[in-house]
């Protein structure tokens, strides 16, 4: 039996604009001296509230599926579940999600943080915002302070959850660190009663995000980025999305190219030749459709492999002529390496990179007449570390009737730009880690890099007369700290 309403201390005006359900419940816990488990027992849906064991997933604050909307409304004066749904919808529902489905689960986790991120100044007032959980924002929109995710004293992290294992009591870390500066009962009630107008004023980019036009929203739907992109590593992600949404082109550090509108109708000489060969007038008019399709796929695969090799050759040449310009003799030394002696980090990164993206059996084969290992499968060959390209291929293959009849010009246009960015980033990763691999004396075949993916946004749709767009951002690379053991020889 649930206790009558007036047992609880609560006032609807304690809930501030954009406040997250997390801090609303923390306030409720303080004011009523209850624990997370009490909240589930009191406000849970029937299937959950009486369970003997309440699991961590029952404390979820994104979907809030364990909580009974009506019971909450009766006490809090507001339906927190619906309010949360509406707030999150405004924030993330417009972002691209189709290409995340089946690849990242749940798709929301691409945009929402699972750990609690917070602004120290906000927490002092017992306030936490859903904006703090939004991965495209890295600073508090109200104080412009960098958001943090661990205790300044003990370094503990907290889950964004109704249950706070790492909190001793609301707003107090298990190490004793007090986040909320209001601790006397009378004072915190007073403070929460204040209107606190600053929570209504949003910075311009966030305001723009919440008030996008229909045209901007429709552009967002057509965007593609690597599903595994970690927005935590890209400090300007919200502005980046806005830039693409507005097709703005005068932002420093932003690069942008677009194809011609007719790209999807361009047919190469090869495609025309093939179409004729298998047409009614051609040599193979009596073959059945299955074999013709298979033949078309074989040709497509070959063409894409040639294209892939061309892109690698181009990026390799670029790297050799820029970052490696001073290390030509180091490359020579490494290719003839007999297991002893110093190794240049730049040469190592280049050779290791080429070996992994192109599947060479041994590093001495790179740029040395060696033949890469080929996959013997009816799929496209991509760098073995670029799994996302297989996902992209699957999605694209599922969208159209016959991949062999789709526009190769358009596919190559997009694929080549994606490959360029990926290959450069992958080289960067090797370069950053070359020193440690050398000192450990290993050349891993498929190393796990923490941040492997570049940030880019492609814009495309199925419309036959629409151009393709590709946007990417300058990545500040710093290589200076890498010493070359042969630098005195030059
Ligand atoms: Zn703040
Ligand atoms: Zn602590
Ligand atoms: Zn060198």
UniProtKB/TrEMBL annotation:
It comes from the Bacteria. This is TniQ family protein. The lineage of its organism: Bacteria, Bacillati, Bacillota, Bacilli, Bacillales.
